[in-house]
Write a structure and sequence with these properties.
mainly beta
Amino acid sequence: MEYDGILLLLDVDGGLHMKQFVLGCIVLLVCSAVWAGVDFTNRGLFGYSNGVYVVDTVAYTASGYSLLWFNVAVPDTPEFIDFIDFPYPASRLFADSEYVFVADGFGGLRIIDMLSFSEIGSVSTSGWAEDVFVSGDYAYVANGDQGVVVVDISDKTAPSVVENIPIDGWVRGVWYLDSTVYVVGDTGLCVISVIAPDSLELTSHI
């Protein structure tokens, strides 16, 4: 059977789940990491997962107080690879072929080198880091009740905060596209113009 797509689901039990669904002519294969024999015991988990990011054949999950990664080259038999624990709950993450960027609550932004499987840098965001989006040498962090933080990540071992723009309420999600930051939270959708990484301007709010 050929699979036209892969759907990765995170549930409140803290597992990476995949199961087969047929929607018209599209088959989505999903299987459970637990069903595949992955033991989550002593993984720093507290029964929930917040985010997932897939790069090529590797799926990364922000699960409880941990970053976990899985080989999903064969979708119906995902393989647990390894994990890293953090002092605070991992909220969401962004990844590329070399690094994983984790929004780690009061732990701020953490940078994981996937070649050495180790944390190589971190920076406090002076808030609760909820979400992160990376573009070039900058990471945009949804920072709870402290708005949006811009972090210079040109040196992965020494990231530094270069800008912070306050947003009313609690900011939970962030996306960057074409010199514009989109954030969502308690007060709806905010659109922020990036004049420069160290100069943000709130342009609209819905």
